[in-house]
Amino acid sequence: MERTISAMIGKGSVNHNTRAFTAKNVDKSRSADNIEFCQEEIKQVYHKLFDEARERYNAKQKRKDRMIDNYYEKIRRGKQEKLFHEVIFQIGNKDDMNAKNEDGLLAKRILTEFMDEFQARNPNLYVFSAHLHMDEETPHLHIDFVPYITGSKRGLDTRVSLKSALAAEGFTGGTRGATELNQWIASEKQELATVMERYGVEWLQKGTHEKHLSVLEFEKKERAREVAELDSQKREISSVVAQLGEEVSVKKQELKNATTEKELAEEATQKANEERITAQQEKEVLLAGNKDLRMENSRLESHKDRLRIENHDLKQKQLQLQTDNEELEQRHEDLQYTNGELQNVNDRLSDDNHTLEQRNDALQSDNQALRQQYNDLQQSNVQLEKQQKELKSNIEKMVQSEEVLQRDGRKYDEAPEWQLPEPGAFTSAKAFRDKVVLPLVNKLKSLVKNLTIQCVRLKEEVLKLRKEKRELLESVEFYKGKIRDMNERTELLQEKADDLERVKRYAGAEQIDTIIGKVKEQERVELQARRYKRSYEAR
Fold first, then answer.
1. CB atoms near residue 286 (< 10 Å)
2. Between residues 164 and 495, the one the model is more confident about
3. Are the C-beta atoms of 15 and 21 separated by less than 8 Å?
4. Among the residues of 415-428, which ranges form H helices?
5. What pLDDT shows up at residue 399?
6. Residue 150: is it exposed, middle or buried by C-beta count within 10 angstroms (0-12/13-18/19+)?
7. Is 427 left (phi over 0), alpha (psi -120 to 50) or beta?
8. DSSP state letters, 39-68
9. Closest alpha carbon to 185 in 278, 118, 134, 258
10. Cβ distance 137 to 25 under 8 Å?
11. For the segment 352-373, what is each residue's pLDDT rounded down to a tens digit?
C-alpha cells in the first residue's frame, strides 16, 4: 500500500480545532471519534515558559521603560515573532484514506503514534494544543506549538524564536528553498513515513507541485517564498536593530550624564581654583599683618569650621527629632486608639471569660457525670453480655430440650411401656380400663403437666430477657445523646478558645495575657472580699 504525505502550515484556529466552532464540512455525528492529545490556554503557557526569564531580565534593567510587564502582550503586539505556529499532517486523501472506512482508521492509528513521539522529538517546540480530526473527509492532525530557545545572549535568556528553536534542533537555513522550516517539515514527513512503514504503508512521493505550475505562477511562488524569507530576515534584523538602538540610547544617556558630570567637575575645579587664589591673596595679606592676629584668625577659622559642623549636626538632629516627634505623636494616637479597642476587647473578654468558666464548670460536671454513666453503661454492657450468654445457653438448652422431646416423643411412639396392648380374650372392658388404660393415661397426664410447666418457665425467662435487653438499648441511646451534647458543648468551648487566640494574634499575646491576668486578679480580689464579707456577717 502506497500513500502520500501532506504537511501544511495552518492558521492556528483553536475554536476550529476544539470544535467550539463547527464548520460546514464537519460531520458532528463523528466528532466523538476525534482525539484531543492536549489543550492548554496560550497565556498560561507563556507564563509557564517565560515568567522566570522575564523576572531575570527585569532585574538587570536600570531603566523602567525597558522592563517587560507582560511577555505575551509584547510578542502579540510585535511583528518579529508569532505567538504560536500550527502544522497539519495528513496521510493520503479522501479517496484512498477516507475517515469513514478501514483505511481511515489505519490513518488514525499512524497519526496517533506519530503524535505520541512528536514532543520528545522536538523539545524546543512546546505543544500546547494537538487534535486529530476524524469528523471530516480525511483524517488529519493539527499541532499548535510555541517555539522557544534557552540561554539567549540578548533579550530574555528564554524567549520565542522559530528560527533559533529549529536551529537548536539541527535545522540551519541553506538556500532560499531550504529554510529551517522547510528542512524541519521534510524531516517530520520522513518521521511520519517511518511510522507508516511499521503499519505496512509506503510513502508515495509525487514531488512538489511547482513543476505542474506555469512559468509565471512558478516565478510568482518563488518570489513569494523569497519575500517571506526576506520578511523573516527583516524581522530578525529589526529585532537586532531595536536591541542595539536601546543599547545605544542607554550609552548615549550614560555619555550625556558623564558629560554633565564632567562640566560640573570643571566648574567645581574652576571655582576651587578661584577660591584657592582668593585664599592665597588673603593669606598674603594676613602674613603681612601681626603674627598673633594670624594665629587668632587661624584659631577662629578652625572654631568656625567646628561650629559649622556642629550647626549642621544640630540641624540634622533637629530634623530627626521633629520626625521622631511626629512619629511618636502618631504612635501615641495609634496607641490611644488601640488602648480603647483593647479596653473594649478586655470588657468582652471578661464577659466571655466568665461565661467560659461557667460553661467549663458545667462541662466538667457533665463530663464527670457522663464518665460515671459511661462506667455504669460499661458495667451494664458486661452484665448484658453475660445475660446474652445465659440466654444463648438457655436457648441451646431449649433446642436440646426440643431435640430430647422429639427423641422422647419417638421413644413414646415406639417404647412398649407407652403402647396400649390388645385386651385378652377373657378380659372384661372394665378390667382392661382399670388395669391398662387408666394407668397409661395418668402417665401421659403427668408427662404433659411437666412439659407445660417447663414451657411456661422458659417463656417467662425469654420475656424477662427481652425486656432487660430493650431497657439496656434505651439506656445506650440516652447516653449516646448525652455524649453528643457534651461534644457540642466542647466544640462551642473550642470555638470560644479559638476566638480568644484570634484576639491574641491581633492585639498581641503578651498584652492579652496581661489583661486576662489583671481581670483574674480583680476577680480573685472580689471573691476574697465576698468571702471576707460573708465570714464577717456570719459572726
1. 15
2. 164
3. yes
4. none
5. 56
6. middle
7. beta
8. E--HHHHHHHHHHHHHHHHHHH-SSGGG--
9. 118
10. yes
11. 667 766 766 776 776 677 677 6
| Predicted local confidence at residue 211, as pLDDT | 36
SS3 2: strand
Length of the chain: 539
Pairing of strands 5-9, 202-203: unpaired
| E-assigned strand segments in 169-298 | 202-203
C-alpha cell of residue 332: 501615641
Segment (H or E) for 387:
helix 291-414
List the beta bridge partners of residue 147.
125
Give residue for cell 594670624: 294
Amino acid at 362: A
CA distances from 119 to 38, 127, 128, 172, 500 (A): 11, 7, 10, 20, 56
pLDDT at 257 over 60: yes
Q: Are 199 and 185 in contact (CB under 8 A)?
A: no
For residue 517, give the C-alpha cell: 491576668
Q: Are strands 2-3 and 202-203 parallel, antiparallel or unpaired?
A: parallel
405-440 burial, b for 16+ CB within 10 Å, e for fewer? eeeeeeeeeeeeeeeeeeeeeeeeeeebeeebeeee
In this prediction, residue 381 carries a pLDDT of: 64
Three-state secondary structure along 97-157?
CCCCCHHHHHHHHHHHHHHHCHHHHCCCEEEEEEEEECCCCCCEEEEEEEEEEECCCCCCC
Q: How far is CA 441 from CA 158, 274, 417, 428, 453, in A?
A: 114, 159, 12, 18, 18
Sign, CA torsion 224/226/229/233: negative
Give the ranges where 415-508 is alpha helix by DSSP (H). Answer: 429-432, 438-507
- Smallest CA-to-CA distance from 485 within 367, 313, 340, 342 is with 367
Rounded distance between C-alpha atoms, residue 398 and residue 468, angstroms = 20
What does the alpha-carbon distance between residue 110 and residue 88 come to, in Å, rounded to a whole number?
Answer: 14
Return the pLDDT at 479. Answer: 74
Residue written as cell 464577659? Answer: 351
Q: Give Cα 84 distance to the centre of its chain.
A: 28
Does the pTM surpass 0.85? The reply is: no
Q: What is the CA radius of gyration of the chain?
A: 52
335 band by pLDDT with thresholds 50, 70 and 90: low
Average pLDDT over every residue of 487-516:
80
Q: Are 58 and 67 in contact (CB under 8 A)?
A: yes
